[in-house]
């Protein structure tokens, strides 16, 4: 069933899926018109922020709060103060612009990424891919959709012709040899958006991902998509799920993703990773 065409007597999850798609789509014109046209600032952690990040966060989470006041909603860009405990059954996690560096430079490899978590686990994801002007969405039991097309993870192995998204470690000297190991084993893709790397695995456009430098809000939506599309996301360091507390200071995640065989192959070639 196309998730945009749901029965009148919709479940609580179905209603949230429909609302999520509408909320994300309501901000695509703003994202595209601001692309490369807004000033940016640098946060304390070295990441970039623009006024568009804040505006999209306020708009999307505001719509969802009005529709589902019992839910909690989190965005990195609106978070201030101490960590917040997750107490609601359903939780929204938004990255208003994943790939902000690209966005600020006028490059289209960026996305709005909205995840719905149930009891702390990603169950549905909605991502708007600016570069293709396409809405991607999916969740376990509901399939993975790239626009109108239902898609699946490639059931591939790690070969020289495989395409793997790669995000190197933030800390110099951490995970030594991983970059060299991946580059010599496959075709590496690094487009500057962790959400799109993982969503492209779900859509069968990339074979796998190795990411050393990400937080849950960057990838939560795409985690749900990959699982819906028949793939795996294996957290090798700092597994953030089930989410019990939203904390800007949460440690960075190291994970691999793809089909089961791809995950096995990636772990086998990365130095120091136990298989």
Overview features:
275 residues, alpha+beta, seven-stranded mixed β-sheet, five-stranded mixed β-sheet, disordered N terminus
Strand content: 25-35%
C-alpha geometry: globular
Roughly what percent helix?
A: 25-40%
- Mean model confidence by pLDDT: 93
- Can you count the beta strands? 16
Protein architecture, described:
With 275 residues, the protein is of the alpha+beta class. Helices cover 30% and strands 29% of the residues. It is built from eight helices and 16 strands. The protein has a seven-stranded mixed beta sheet, sandwiched between helices. The protein has a five-stranded mixed beta sheet with strand order 12-11-13-16-14, sandwiched between helices. Helix 1 packs antiparallel against helix 3. The longest helix has 17 residues. The protein is globular and about 50 Å long. The N terminus is likely disordered.
Element layout with pairings:
Blueprint: H1 12-25, H2 28-34, E1 40-42, E2 48-50, H3 51-67, E3 72-75, E4 84-85, E5 90-98, H4 100-105, E6 111-118, E7 121-129, E8 134-139, E9 143-146, E10 149-151, E11 163-167, H5 178-183, E12 187-189, H6 194-202, E13 208-214, H7 216-228, E14 232-237, E15 245-246, E16 253-258, H8 260-269
Parallel strand pairs: 3-5, 11-12, 11-13
Antiparallel strand pairs: 1-2, 4-15, 5-6, 6-7, 7-8, 8-9, 9-10, 13-16, 14-16
